[in-house]
Amino acid sequence: MKQLRLLSFFIISVFVCTSTVEAQKKKDTKTNSQTQTTVAAIAQTETSVPKKITTVEGITEYNLSNGLRVLLFPDQSKPTITVNITYLVGSRHEGYGESGMAHLLEHMVFKGSTNHPNIPQELSSHGARPNGTTWLDRTNYFETFSATDENLRWALSLESDRMINSFIKKEDLESEFSVVRNEFESGENNPEGVLMERVMSTGYLWHNYGKSTIGSKEDIERVPIENLRAFYKKYYQPDNAVLTIAGKIDQDATIKLVNEYFGKIPRPTRELQPTYTVEPTQDGERFVELRRVGDVQVVAAGYHIPSGAHADYAAVEVLTEVLTNEPSGRLYKALVESKKASATYGYSLQLKDPGYAYFAAQVLKDKSLTDANTTMMSVFDNLSSNKITDEEVTRAKNTIIKYFELMYNNSDRVGLTLSEYIAQGDWRLWFLYRDAVEKVTADDVNRVAQAYFKPSNRTVGTFIPVDKPDRATIPASPDVTALVKDYKGKAALAEAEAFDPSCANIDKRTTKGTIPGGAKYAFLTKSTRGSSVNAQIKLFLGSEKSLVGKGLTAEYCASMLKRGTKTKSYQQINDAFDSMKASVSISGSGQTLTVNITTVKDRLNEVMALVNDILRNPSFPADEFDKMKEEDLASIDQSKSDPQSLAINTFTRMMNNYDKSDYRYTMTFEEKSSALKALKLEDVKKFYTDFYNGSNATVAVVGDFDAEATAKGLSSMLANWTSTQTYSRDANKSFNNPAKVEKLNTPDKANAMMICGHDMNIKDDNADYPSLIIGNYMLGGGFLNSRLATRIRQKEGISYGVGSQLRADAKDESGSFISYAIYNPDNSAKLIEAYKDELNKMLTSGFTSDELKDAISGYLQGQNVSRSQDRTLASRLNSYLEYNRTFAWDENIEKAISTLNVDQVNTAMKKWISPTNISYVEAGDFNRMKDDKMSQE
């Protein structure tokens, strides 16, 4: 949900990379020798039959004799499998001087293990979509891949091996800690995220929830390898882990495979002691102030709340939604509608121990922060006299349950979501949480508001002494074992078909048609888990001549559509979509308007009817127009000092030389701010009247739906819908500008951004295109085994994120080659030198046959995974209506890639990639070292 927008500053996800295994130092050689002896002993260990524990709504739990818990979630509707292993260790378990150790260890286990020495290469060659994340209560690793027996065996072999046989080498730590520090510095660029950390650390005096998961930079840099190994051996054991496997699996065969790979690992002799720190009851309001460079003011408030398993948590979550919903939320109405703030948000952390609720509001510099602060606190403090209503509770519950059900329909996401509830004590808490939300009443919400949302339990301002403290006592976490005992849950969703995502089968299953007036559609009907369905609608508008000076107007016209119709308000539209279990987004730019829809079969017709109302009967309410402008002005102001935003904006302007009047012209932030302030609602309304039509629309629908009824609904929406300004496609251009270099200084920003590249006069039907696809995949487009990632991230530890992209247009000779990296500003020269060196090695020495073989395997499997995602499939089917293509085009491209030899690839890369034509843009605090030196002098 939108309330989770800032959790990225606490939940640390990592794309870690490893180097080719090198000769170990004597100490590491001894350690690996001991590890291999242990493996040999394990191989001789007898394994017992896994014990089936329970089944709830299609998910079955097994226990292995060594303590490993296993969750199996069969779903035949997708030809993919997700393997997710959750270790019950997070930043909560770290001791003094160990902050960030759980997250640092997450990076290290991607560095290789006894039987899997080059993990990034294996992930790439199996076409996997992997990652690892660290949070307060747990760490998890997962990979989603094509559902084959070989891939499943490989994944189980990988996870069982790195559970106990990861190298954890000193030289890997020396290179990786700088990567983690770079990740730390990236978070330091955002004052809002830092403010959240400060509020949390002030709210928690003793409990580790007050510490950022990424840890202290000093601890990260100084952790001894012996301490990290001890931490690994203590927590990475079968009795402290839960393995979840979801997707196209045979349950009986899969649990046997799990036992084959994991069952031989012995149960450890050590006993894990539970953490026992209890945060004392807060005894007065607290305040924290942050002063840094930035462009938007922020006021925030946090409250201690019960743990995720506690009976009160569901009511707290509903209260949080009541306060933060847009546009009905009380904070939104009090602050945004009054124009005291430009945006509000909030969330409640669902944790094993008593957690935290956090709220914030963005305030433009020319607004009063004191006024916004006073207004925000009054919303909380008036909850006792201004009770939460039944209508507000119903709306909030609909939103929460909608997201639960949409998530539950997607088996690969279910496996990952369960990690959060496993960390709280048991996976079944997810279903208990849903059940509890369904039962929440307005009385429950008002009771928890009085119990926990009081000034003495709040961190926002200065300390205020009082004669009679009014304190909130947070209840202890309940006994989860007793809570879930004999829990059965609801009926499991019906099984869906085993869909074949091959190009030939997609074309065979797809039906196409034309709507009177010219709109085209493509339908792919199939049974899906939870009867889910995805759709995409595109409208094509205007021409280069008719759109002169209307770039911003076109964007705003699209954004205003959901803000109200002639029969429904913004709030009523949101409520209707929630009640229909539908997620609908509308966006537009230049000549294209795009509508993306995710819902379920029995609500699709209703959803389409409401989308029809939104597209055909928008009301463009003036108050919503003003609020949206305020929100966007705040966003623009934030971008002015953000290195990533500045670098991308500058690079885009450097590459694209469209005239200022052209709708494709990229404005500076100052130009966009001025244009936005001058934009009038009348211009937006006129744009809709003059340009919107269904004559050239394209629609793709994928999933479980009634094709005849859907076609009828689309006809009602799009048939014979015309406009005075007709559509004429504008060609995409390549400007082939001479190489330039720009270095932008952004004071007080700990992280920098580099983006570079050049145009390419190429279409995707060019004979070299397959070679360029796979060449870029090996250079920087794949996972962490790419040349750029191996050199710049793993070997030298310069960048947390680095890669490259290659694009070729489907209709015009317009393409580009682009590379990027985030890094410490002090490493600017090292980054550019390493990047240019790797580019030169690729163009002079070329790729090897072994590299190409692995890359082809990984790329082709990755494409198969992409086609198994219904939303992605709907988008591609829609694009192919525009391009007059079928998936036979994909099939031909993949056949060409599968037969490539290394000479073809190297020749194509040399032909099309030109180092002398590359333009570079860097943005960061490049004066920091000079300023530090002057300060010392």
Biggest sheet strand line-up: 1-6-7-5-8-4-3-2
Biggest pleated sheet: 8 strands, mixed
Which shape, going by the Cα principal axes? globular
Classify the fold: give the CATH topology of the largest domain: Cytochrome Bc1 Complex, Chain A, domain 1
Give me the oligomer status.
Answer: single chain
Number of helices: 34
CATH superfamily of the largest domain: Metalloenzyme, LuxS/M16 peptidase-like
CATH architecture of the largest domain: 2-Layer Sandwich
How many domains would you count in the coordinates? Answer: 4
Find the count of extended strands (DSSP E, 2+ residues): 24
Specify the helix fraction band. 40-55%
In round numbers, the mean pLDDT is 90
**Spans of at least 5 consecutive residues with low confidence:** 1-45, 461-467, 933-937
| SS class | alpha+beta
Strand content: 15-25%
Radius of gyration: 28 Å
What characteristics describe this protein?
4 domains, 937 residues, Cytochrome Bc1 Complex, Chain A, domain 1, alpha+beta, globular, disordered N terminus
Protein model, in words:
The protein has 937 residues and is α+β, with helices and mostly antiparallel strands. It has 4 domains: 2-262, Metalloenzyme, LuxS/M16 peptidase-like (Cytochrome Bc1 Complex, Chain A, domain 1); 286-484, Cytochrome Bc1 Complex, Chain A, domain 1 (2-Layer Sandwich); 503-718, Cytochrome Bc1 Complex, Chain A, domain 1 (2-Layer Sandwich); 741-935, Cytochrome Bc1 Complex, Chain A, domain 1. 44% of the residues lie in helices and 17% in strands. It has 34 helices and 24 strands. The strands form 4 sheets. The chain has an 8-stranded mixed beta sheet, with helices on both faces. A hairpin with a 5-residue loop joins β14 (510-514) and β15. The radius of gyration is 28 Å and the shape is globular. It starts with 11 loop residues before the first strand and ends with a helix.
